[in-house]
Amino acid sequence: MIAVFALCIFASAFLLFLVEPMVAKMVLPVVGGTPAVWTTSVLFFQTVLLVGYGYSHWLAIRLQWRWQAVLHGVVLLLPLTVLPIHLIPGWNPPTTGSPVGYLVVLLSVMVGLPFFVVSTTSPLVQHWFSRTGHPQAADPYFLYRASNLGSALGLLSYPALIEPHLGLHAQAEAWVGGYVAFLVLVAICLGLLAWARSRAGDTPAAPRPIAGASQAGSVDDKSITPITWTRRLRWVLLAAVPSTWMLAVTSYFTTAIRPLPLLWVIPLALYLFSFAIVFARRPLIPRRLLNRIFPFYALPVLGLILLGGGGPFWALALLHFGAFFLAALLCHGELAADRPNARHLTEFYWWLAVGGATGGLLTAVVAPVVFNDFFEYPIAIIGAALLRPALIKSERPRSRLYDVALPAGLAAFLLLGVGVLSASGVLATLDRVVVTSAATAADLVRVLIVFAIPAVVSAAFSWRPVRFGLTTTSMLLLSLLPIGSQPAIFQQRDFFGVHKVVTDPGATRHELIDGGVIHGIQLTDPRVRDVPASYYFGTGPVGDFFNAEQPVDASWNVGVIGLGAGAMACYAQPQQKWTYYEIDPVVIGIAQNPALFTFLRDCTPSAVIVPGDARLTIAKAADHSYDLIVIDAFGGDAIPVHLLTREAVQLYMSKLRPGGVLLFNVSNKYIDVSSVLAGEAAALTLVSFMRTDVVVTPAEAAAGKFVSAWLVMAADPGNLGGIPERPGWGALRADPQFPVWTDDFSDVLAVTRLG
């Protein structure tokens, strides 16, 4: 019996984690990749999940099991009326205004009903199992392991097994088959419930205490403790903190450390596995041990975040992801220990869903608006520190006063010290004292004040969570003080990430950095200020292209997808018309701000900038209107796949005049974009040539040159002028074994490089 119930829950979770990425790929070419689209999709799925859990709770407390079976049996059949999941023909997005309303309606019709129905399964089937009279029925929470293992397997299977072998249409058809198998499993579970109830005379079993569901050191059984609002709030917080931490460490690691695609799979898998571990029938890891270890793992991570520390990739991955996994085990372990009696099971899971959704909303929606950096990451660490159970309990009022007074006193003392050093001019003097090539004496003072001294005090308070948590809070607040090197001259965060403009100690250049990727450089010397640098250097492939003999290039109409700092503008000629397509309004503001970059002002002052998703906006341009379209949007970890498919290339070609050319920047360390484009060029009978420039002399490096790779594509070799004969350029040859990317099929994992 247990195996059938567990398999049913496993199947439902597996289906849920397959449908989300599948639907996201379906709608991307239609609605684009703007922040409104992404956040709306996240909110939609979280809202439907909460509604599904709420429905399960209502069903469990309002109806007898027979009526539950009848009503839910009807609900289970309803998705068959809308399957397979597909885009609705003729439902085009609005040409003006926000796409949010359209997207909500589209997702509701496409996937709302199937997602809702499948999301109800885990709490409802566990509730049914608790009514069977089975020896394990008093504590059905161990079945939650099956849900999280199914989620993890679905998560890992989609990019590794399903996406590389099936197009979207085939995926949708396979999902229907999975749903039918899931219906059979639910029917078997209901049959087993009916059989068990008939044998027991249909008399509900009295609630029994749950073995092991008590707090460490407590004589009270939490499974029969009344459910107060304080207890519910604690459930929400214990669920919200790991959810926030998971999303925060993903954003931080893939931007500040290594912009690898699909890296988000690691923290999400650890998050799911932590549930599976702590909800086992027998605890696999003692909670007290996790509690004792956590402070000494969290402190170094917090220090690295606040001080911007670095190191070897694998060491940082072990530290950041290890600390997160430890925190998830700790918080989820507290939830498992505080689980109520089975009669309150569905309510318990609903509050967990509220907490998970709260963490997602804070990270995905609130943080990009409120913070200019990834401050939700240290806040999540502090939240976990405060939620830890105390290793030594004390009810004395004086002890509680010390919990607040001691951390506050430490912060005040350090703040006073900084004030004295600043007022006396010592800090300014230390900032000019170079200790190493990368640090000044003021930087060392910053390490002492922000991390070293508070960390020692925090470690001494590790046995009292409030003191420890408030001391780590003081570290976050002290990190905001202007001590040490502050190279950023501009910093702003939006839904696309953290955008910084930094300068070097000699103020000889400005660099635009999005996450860990430099997207543009401009030298500040007026004599060379308008000379393109970085990937656009004159001796590189872009210089080759614009310096090659091109017909009527003086009157070209040029479109550029991806603005960056605007360096390419300085290849423009006076009679040319340039139009930029840029999705990120913050990037537009940076490129137009002459205090940061002057390429646009100096070289293309009359250029048109079209905000929005480039595939949607360039589709509105007149056909056969451009002589050159530059696609410069593949420099980060999350490449916009919908700008790289065969349909996208066909769209670009339709906008070119006879003799027109496409120019792609394929300079990406972690994704082999050129292999994708080679296959599409071959499929569309286009010619393509590529040059990878790895030669950077010391003088060129000083002038801002980067290693770069660019690809040209056209309908005829004659459109490329002298490019095919120039040194370093070679014709691309498609790999016949490499499938062509389309709006229906793509496989990022196949083109991912690890080093």
Describe the structure.
It is a single chain. With 755 residues, this protein is α/β, with parallel strands linked by helices. It has helices at 2-31, 35-62, 65-77, 100-119, 121-130, 144-162, 168-199, 229-257, 265-278, 287-307, 313-337, 345-370, 376-387, 397-423, 426-430, 441-460, 465-478, 541-547, 585-592, 599-603, 614-618, 646-654, 673-683, 698-702, and strands spanning 434-436, 439-440, 488-494, 497-503, 509-514, 517-523, 557-561, 577-582, 608-611, 626-631, 656-665, 687-693, 708-714, 730-731. The strands form three sheets. It has an eight-stranded mixed sheet with strand order 9-8-7-10-11-13-12-14.
Spans of at least 5 consecutive residues whose pLDDT stays below 50 are 214-220, 434-438
Q: How many β-strand runs?
A: 14
Structural class: alpha/beta
Helix content: 40-55%
Distance between the termini: 48 Å
Count of alpha/pi helices = 24
Query: Order of strands across the biggest sheet?
Result: 9-8-7-10-11-13-12-14
The shape is globular
Q: Specify the biggest β-sheet.
A: 8 strands, mixed
